[in-house]
Design goal:
12 helices; six-stranded mixed β-barrel; alpha+beta; elongated; 19% strand
Length: 401
């Protein structure tokens, strides 16, 4: 600690180099702390639970090219064939795919009275096998049964149905009371709530209604449909390709395709976040590497420039450990000065992002982690040239100057 004042005086006498290093480290603290925060935020978003059995699910799309045949019978036949496959756990037709970015939403109401609050929700049309096929956890009430499922044409919509909603949506519509047995309205269609599931993500993971979803067993008779198939995890991909061939064999005139696993769909949904994580991770690595090189170069330069000083200190009784401690303390002081300036820059940048991009404020722990990380990098980078300097004998150091 007694060396601090002499070190500060020494740095001030040759202030250009130290000031440049402090500026470089300050910018690094600001950039890395904000980058770490963004990376962590993106990872948290990607790892949010979807509520479905992601690793076991895949999607197959089918579209008939001929108007012949009843679409309900075609879907029932397809699901029967799919469910008969040994590796399949269950399957359902579904109107839209979670996380796909494309789907249907509707405003739900507790009554038809004017002025009643709307609760926006994603809407999934599924069958009696939907809950098990999606791997959703039912926490209250019951699943759909055969009598609940209705297929209809747009000219003859049903006049009543049942629904299963997510816990998030249930708590918004019926706070502090059970939703089971209650009626909600989608437009003028009354829906009796028969079940509540723990979680089911909407097609739009970025939206405010990401966890607000209602599943309804009413299916419009249209020419195309998506099948959600849940298979044993290890057999997922093989089962997916085999089922495509099976469905083509049932009716070779149909279009069968777009087979994708839920893992692929999720990865596509978060492709921008994955790209951001890679870019910022590379920036963090690059800045760390450049700073380490700068510290090595500057420390080597200072050590060579002060060989006489080192020799005198050694001649006056300073040990090798004392020399190492002196130069290490120099680098610690540089990091401390840089941390103070870098923290200000980091929060100025964070404040700008909050105002213009609606980003969250930068938590202080990211700045502290960055400072500790840079301190370790700085000391590791400086150790080798400092250790070499400490090996110089007093006679050698003075004679070579």
């Amino acid at each position: 600690m007694l060396d601090i004042i002499p070190i500060i005086k020494s740095l001030w006498r040759n202030k250009t180099g130290p000031l440049l290093i402090i500026l470089q480290l300050s910018l690094t603290v600001a950039v890395i702390s904000n980058a770490l925060f963004i990376v962590h935020d993106r990872i948290e978003k990607i790892e949010r639970p979807t509520g479905i059995a992601e690793e076991e699910i895949f999607i197959i799309w089918a579209r008939r090219t001929s108007p012949e045949g009843d679409i309900q019978e075609i879907i029932d036949k397809d699901i029967e064939v799919i469910r008969a496959t040994p590796s399949v756990i269950n399957a359902t037709s579904i109107s839209s795919i979670p996380l796909s970015g494309s789907g249907t939403s509707s405003a739900l109401r507790k009554s038809l009275e004017l002025g009643n609050t709307d609760f926006n929700s994603a809407i999934y049309a599924i069958t009696q096998h939907g809950i098990e096929a999606l791997g959703i956890t039912l926490i209250e009430g019951r699943s759909f049964n055969d009598n609940d499922v209705q297929f209809f044409t747009r000219e003859n919509p049903p006049d009543h149905s049942v629904t299963i909603i997510t816990r998030d949506l249930a708590e918004k519509i019926f706070p502090e009371e059970s939703a089971i047995g209650k009626t909600i309205f989608m437009g003028s269609l009354p829906l009796t709530v028969v079940g509540v599931v723990e979680r089911m993500m909407a097609p739009w993971p970025e939206s405010e209604l990401a966890y607000d979803a209602a599943m309804i067993p009413v299916n419009v008779k249209e020419d195309s449909t998506h099948y959600v198939v849940r298979a044993l995890k290890g057999d997922r991909d093989a089962t997916m390709h085999a089922l495509v061939e099976k469905l083509r064999a049932i009716d070779s005139t149909r279009l069968i395709g777009e087979e994708r696993s839920m893992v692929q769909i999720k990865r596509n949904s978060y492709s921008g976040d994955y790209a951001m994580i890679k870019i910022l991770s590379f920036v963090i690595f690059l800045l760390t590497f450049v700073n380490a090189l700068g510290i090595v170069g500057l420390t080597t330069f200072w050590v060579n420039q002060r060989r006489k000083q080192i020799g005198i200190r050694r001649a006056l009784g300073s040990t090798k450990a004392g020399v190492i401690r002196y130069f290490m303390m120099e680098n610690i002081l540089l990091v401390i000065f840089a941390a103070a300036v870098g923290t200000i820059i980091a929060y100025v940048n964070s404040s700008y992002m909050v105002r213009t991009q609606s980003a969250s404020p930068l938590p202080i722990e990211y700045v502290l982690i960055t400072v500790v990380f840079l301190l370790l990098v700085t000391l590791l980078a400086a150790y080798s040239p400092v250790r070499r300097a400490a090996q110089i004998s007093p006679v050698e150091a003075v004679s070579n100057v």
